[in-house]
Specification:
alpha+beta, five-stranded mixed beta sheet, 5 strands, 35% helix, globular
Length: 161
């Protein structure tokens, strides 16, 4: 087995990315929440105003994982940051260095661009991921509680209800 190779995703990868997103959602027991289509992925990553970018990790020419990320901003630092939306490596390739290679590529991008932070979230029950992140020196930010508005609640609030 060769070392993991990281490359930017291309428009031809949209079906693969959707497949990996679905695999990740299945692992997180939330497959029913995946509403995106390959067209949505294409529009989000490669449209006129891309909302995010993606990397593909390959081993021996086969895609084994991906990362989707976007630029965030810290008012306190007065600098952009990099936010990792999703990181996923197929179960049979965990321990191969694929996840670390994806994270290292993103960390290097953040450093080269002069970003002040590289952040992501992890489910509190995902002990293997938590151990992995701590093994590379990442620290949990326990003082923050994440909030979300989506679906009908987002619509109601936006409409003033």
């Amino acid at each position: 087995m060769t070392s993991p190779a990281i490359r930017p995703a291309s428009p031809d990868d949209c079906g693969l990315i959707l497949e990996l997103i679905t695999d990740l959602a299945r692992y997180e027991k939330a497959e029913h929440e995946v509403l995106a289509s390959a067209d949505d992925i294409h529009r989000s990553l490669f449209g006129d105003e891309p909302a995010a970018k993606a990397l593909i990790c390959e081993i021996d020419g086969a895609a084994v994982g991906f990362a989707v990320y976007f630029v965030s901003y810290s008012t306190w630092l007065g600098k952009p940051g990099l936010y990792l939306e999703d990181l996923y490596v197929k179960p049979e390739h965990r321990g191969s260095g694929a996840g670390k290679a994806l994270l290292r590529e993103l960390a290097a991008l953040a450093v080269v661009k002069g970003y002040g932070r590289f952040e992501w979230s992890v489910l509190d029950w995902n002990e293997p991921a938590i151990r992995f992140y701590q093994s590379i020196g990442a620290q949990p930010q326990a003082e923050w509680i994440r909030y979300r508005l989506d679906g009908e609640a987002l619509q109601r609030f936006a409409n003033g209800d």
